[in-house]
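agent> Task received from the user: take the single chain below, predict its 3D structure, and emit structure tokens. No templates, no multimer pairing.
agent> Plan: (1) validate residues, (2) run structure prediction, (3) serialize to tokens, (4) report one or two observations.
agent> Step 1 OK, no nonstandard residues flagged.
tool_call: predict_structure(input=
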Amino acid sequence: MATILEHIQALDRNTLTRLYHQPATCLAMLRLLQPLAKHVVMRLLFVSAVEMVVVSAWIYAERQTALEEALASLFKFNIASSENGVLKINAVYQANLKNALVGGGNTSSFGLPTDSKDKKDITTDYLDTYARESWEAVLHFLVGTPTDKKPSAVVALMEGSGLMARNAMRSSDELRITNKGFQFLLQDVNEQVWGFLLQYLEMAEPKLGMDPVDVLNFLFQLGSLEFGQDYSVDVLTDTQKQMLDDLKHFGLVYQRKKKSSRFYPTRLATSLTSGASASGDTGDAGYIIVETNFKVYAYTTSPLQIAVLSLFLSLKARFSNMVIGVLTRDSVRQAYDNGISADQICQFLTNHAHPEMKKQLPPTVVDQIRLWESERKRAVAMPAHLYLDFPRNVDYLEAVGFARSLGYVLWSSDEKRMFAVSIEGHNRMREYLASKKR
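)
tool_result: status=success, residues=438
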């Protein structure tokens, strides 16, 4: 999946300038920049323009390449520009970043805290639980756990982002996890959330009729809000209110009722641009033990983690704090049928390996997983043209030699005087054979 910075780089200069009218967005962009680019922005913030000769003197000579890369990123984001040997900061970005850092200007850009106390005491622990359960419900749907709740926003994003797809070989319209979807499960929560939000951005204008600038501004606003504080809905635009209703399904915001006048950002939202952990705890980083007899012991009680394991394991037993499964040929091949690769299975088991395993899987298990995958690649179907019925052996050898010299031969049999060439080589072979007949 693309990153948020790649998405912003693709915007035109006018759209970027519109984006920078919000102080919260300017602050979020500063946080997302590489360290050297941040340094340059802070140097320019209160002076507006500096000669490039002076800018070069800010950095050691051996680091000039890094400075050029930092400046190039600022030019792409329309944060700065170079004219006649002078580096200038975008005036709109400069004014609103000042407002974000020292105060003043559009204060509602950072949300408007409510001035009345909520009837229900919403604690940070409650918000963490709500966010975790909502996000895990989305991931449960991804791994195929049966559920009656399938919000249209979730289904559309899953299919639109390529994380799930309908099996063309079956008549059912059921969505199944793809190779890209399993790779998505290997990412940390913050990357997963941004992956969904980027797909939401792609759908915002063409399918939802939303202003992409308004959507981006609200996402950056959420990243600047205070976790545990409630904010007023009244200052939001119609687009942002619609987003609020969609983002509830992913656990980014909590709103008790649809018409409630307040909402709470969860840790999933407030960590979007801060770089902090998107979850309140560290989770079960290492909980899997793999034995040389292909048995897998997973010390977890998480239904989500068990559902992910069931994608490539044959589960045999479940205890209060552990599940036992076996890597079998059938269970692993079923994972391959769903688009999951051997490398991804090995990477998942390695990433979540118990500390006692020292992050190294038994080589026999890794080799067997790869062998099961190679079984599927014994025969590869490719479109081709078959040449046969050569009257003389010398004619066959000359023709196959010509095709082989150009890399067109896919298969050949000297005994039967037959060979197959690729589609690209067919026209060239026709010309060659026609010239031999003249």
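agent> Step 4: summary for the user.
The first strand starts at residue 49 and ends at 51.
agent> Done.
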